[in-house]
Automatic annotation (TrEMBL):
It comes from Dyadobacter sandarakinus. This is Large ribosomal subunit protein uL4. Residues 46-76 are annotated as: Disordered. One of the primary rRNA binding proteins, this protein initially binds near the 5'-end of the 23S rRNA. It is important during the early stages of 50S assembly. It makes multiple contacts with different domains of the 23S rRNA in the assembled 50S subunit and ribosome. Forms part of the polypeptide exit tunnel. NCBIfam families: rplD_bact.
């Protein structure tokens, strides 16, 4: 599979790159994708929910009525969950929602996401570029030139570039990441992948470890 390399003005540079078959040419594994996305979303949950149980409610410990002779059930404490203001039975406690999946499954999920985008013809290869300073207008000009304004895009760079990252940060639906930080969720969320030409070899090495 070969793709043309374009510059940030949307012009064809005349160069072509061969996409690694081990990443972009595999049959997507939907179950691996499901597991990796599920893990990503689970890790976004704070898990800080907490309600007070019987032992934690700050109320009087005095026996609220006599044991016998009232015609009702026994009651020893106003902290009991059966009374208004009492503790909650089996309330939520702080917890971590994350779980473990194997590294090979994570790698397969990312490769499957790349392969799915390749099949959908949703990948563009960009010639390496840089900005002199972080300016939102600079990145907007790139998107305008590529006719991707308002489209959910994900730009994958070989390494972090602060000028490019800061230029894209305030633009809705535009995200910039690196080969090491890219995840399955972001790959699937984007409608168009913009991959830096110099990131392809690193991507192949990273995902085929």
């Amino acid at each position: 599979m070969e793709l043309s390399v374009i510059n940030i003005k949307g012009e064809d540079t005349g160069k072509k790159v061969s996409m690694p078959e081990s990443v972009f040419g595999i049959e997507p594994n939907t179950h691996a994708i499901y597991l990796d996305v599920k893990l990503y979303l689970a890790n976004q949950r704070q898990g800080t929910h907490k309600s007070k149980e019987r032992a934690e409610v700050n109320r009087s410990t005095r026996k609220i009525k006599r044991q016998k002779g009232t015609g009702g059930a026994r009651a020893g404490s106003v902290k009991s969950p059966v009374f208004v203001g009492g503790g909650r039975i089996f309330g939520p406690r702080p917890r971590t929602y994350g779980f473990k999946i194997n590294k090979k499954v994570k790698s397969l999920a990312r490769k499957s996401a790349f392969a799915a985008k390749a099949k959908a013809d949703s990948i563009s290869i960009l010639e390496a570029f840089n900005f002199d300073s972080p300016k939102t207008k600079s990145y907007l000009n790139v998107l305008n030139s590529l006719a991707l304004t308002g489209t959910k895009t994900l730009l994958i760079l070989p390494a972090i570039d602060n000028n490019v990252y800061l230029s894209s940060r305030n633009i809705p639906k535009a995200k910039v990441t690196t080969v090491e930080a890219v995840n399955t969720y972001d790959l699937l969320y984007a409608d168009r992948l913009l991959i830096s030409e110099s990131a392809l070899s690193i991507l192949e090495t990273q995902l085929n470890k």
